[in-house]
């Protein structure tokens, strides 16, 4: 028999989120039921709940930065036990058989991974996310949260953390590498922390210097204002790796000019308009323009272990569920330092 969970539900693109009840299936043989403790607010939640993206199936429960405690397990579960500290990120299933899934890159499943919300599971039911006090997930898509990270600081790592860790690792950030992070929001602040812990020399490129003190505290060597033309003149051909975390439309050619020989600009923020850049910006200095999303399950666990070993966690503001819509507005206005996390006890 399904169980009933408390949740905050977006019934339409124009309505405020409302408290309500949703059904969660009982754990199957390989499933675990998680008592959610915290869920981070990602910009993707806002785009979905407010209908900014196409093909949103209302009513919907969003949220894919989930941390909690295992409260029940299926008969054949071996990876997790009741009482374990666990997390769930952006997807909860994949085909498991394609070349990408077999390589541990389930986020790039050729059949399409099953998103934590606004997707359809193997049971034919729509998936519902972490703005709830309970969720049931196959054990293969659940992460272990090490004791070195609090559950509230760990929740945003399941999206923001891995979204930054993945390109930093995949493009070789480390000692001797000059890395720039564009933007100092929920993604960017984790990028600074992780890149610094990897041993890279980190620079923050932000519209203004109002977060400079935080950037330096998180480990950045420097912070420069992109509103100042001198920033681009002084750093031409300087960086080995630039990661763009902002969703705003920016002058890609201007940022490509900051790359050294064979340098790469990686896009993780998702602007609303198509990207444009001159071919010469890439041909010059053999520069590369790439994109990245979250990592697979294997790399996400690696990221959590890395963050625990280096004492890293997200900078969070914990809020009750009743303040979600206000938090959405503050995220849009960049008025949070640096990630809202919902206390699931208030659902």
Plain-language structure description:
24% of the residues lie in helices and 26% in strands. The protein is an alpha/beta fold and 347 residues long. Strands 3, 4, 5, 8, 9, 16 and 17 form a seven-stranded mixed beta sheet that branches. A six-stranded parallel beta sheet has the order 12-11-10-13-14-15. Strand 13, helix 8 and strand 14 form a beta-alpha-beta unit. The two termini are 22 Å apart. The mean pLDDT is 96.
Outline the secondary-structure elements.
Elements lengths: L2 E7 L8 E7 L6 E10 L2 H7 L16 E8 L11 E4 L2 E3 L5 H4 L11 E2 L18 E5 L4 E2 L6 H4 L5 H11 L7 E5 L3 H12 L3 E6 L5 H6 L4 E4 L3 H6 L4 E6 L7 H5 L2 E9 L11 H5 L4 E4 L5 H13 L6 E4 L4 H9 L6 E5 L4
Parallel strand pairs: 10-11, 10-13, 11-12, 13-14, 14-15, 16-17
Antiparallel strand pairs: 1-2, 3-4, 3-8, 3-17, 4-5, 5-9, 6-7
Helix pairs in contact: 4-5, 4-10
Tell me the number of helical segments per DSSP (H or I, 4 or more residues long): 11
Main sheet? 7 strands, mixed
Described by the principal axes of the CA atoms, the overall outline is globular
Tell me how many strands there are: 17
User: Considering DSSP H and I runs of 4 or more, what fraction of the residues is helical?
Assistant: 10-25%
User: Beta-strand level of the residues, as a percent range?
Assistant: 25-35%
Mean pLDDT: 96
| SSE string, helices as H and strands as E | EEEHEEEHEEEHHEHEHEHEHEHEHEHE
Distance between the termini: 22 Å
Which structural class matches the secondary elements? alpha/beta
Q: Which oligomeric state applies?
A: single chain
Q: Please state the CA-atom Rg, rounded to the nearest Å.
A: 20 Å
Ranges where pLDDT stays below 50 over 5 or more residues in a row are none
